[in-house]
Structure of Glutamate-1-semialdehyde 2,1-aminomutase, chloroplastic:
Amino acid sequence: MCVGSNGHLRCAGYRNGSFCKFRNRSLHGSTPPCACIHWEGKILKFEGCYHGHADSFLVEAGSGVATLGLPDSPGVPKGATVGTLTAPYNDVEAVKKLFEDNKGEIAAVFLEPVVGNAGFIPPQPAFLNALREVTKQDGALLVFDEVMTGFRLAYGGAQEYFGITPDVTTLGKIIGGGLPVGAYGGRKDIMEMVAPAGPMYQARTLSGNPLAMTAGIHTLKRLMEPGTYEYLDKVTGELVRRILDAGAKTGHEMCGGHIRGMFGFFFAGGPVHNFDDAKKSDTAKFGRFHRGMLEGVYLAPSQFEAGFTSLAHTTLDIEKTVEAAEEVLRRM
């Protein structure tokens, strides 16, 4: 994946693309072209994954929906979700069963290749390969929501890191240096469904706005520098390892992990392979830990959110964070 001087993104799953204003729009905008390719239009998503607040995705969603304990989002018409199928993340057999029961009717499989909206949950070794195989066999599209994983796991995102090429990729604010922007792209035949080349209309007032594009270009140029991902892996690994060690020393059951600049931990014994596993965590304990850390360290305010490090974080920052965590864990 790379960015040219005109702001165009290029990667294995993003040869042709469209910019929009928000992450939600990138996911929402990617759905109609998938349905244009496969007219039946059912989608399959995974429990605990969050893909913005488009109606069809607010089924078994993660992020704030999981944090607030909402079963689904009130106000979403039943008809908007009737074509949404769900499966546990990392469960290949459940996916195969849904494809058998809905033969030829599933337009696309949407997923976070590494879950971040139910906490940090990496894929099992064969999971992504199996999804690629199943979708190809049935003629469905594989859509990677790389809003969190894009440019964090590798310059080419999770698809480069795991060696899997999706049919469509969606990206969020990371391509704008944190400014409001989203983008989706994929195979040429899919993106030619989008107007003006094709019949699927899309327009946004601030799509591809110059401020976000300029910030994004400079951010992505910085990420291209040698040693970027080695550094992220080093500081993130140190952070997670030492926090888990502190938990063990102070008598708290914890598990967690990281990939490059993305990490997370649960107040649970683990292992955590899906949303049901994540929900076994002690969320009340996480709340106490989070409030204790607010004296100087700002973590995501939910057990069901992944964390991120950046190139701005120094080894001193990691040291101070670990010291604060040890102190809070001792007091809990």
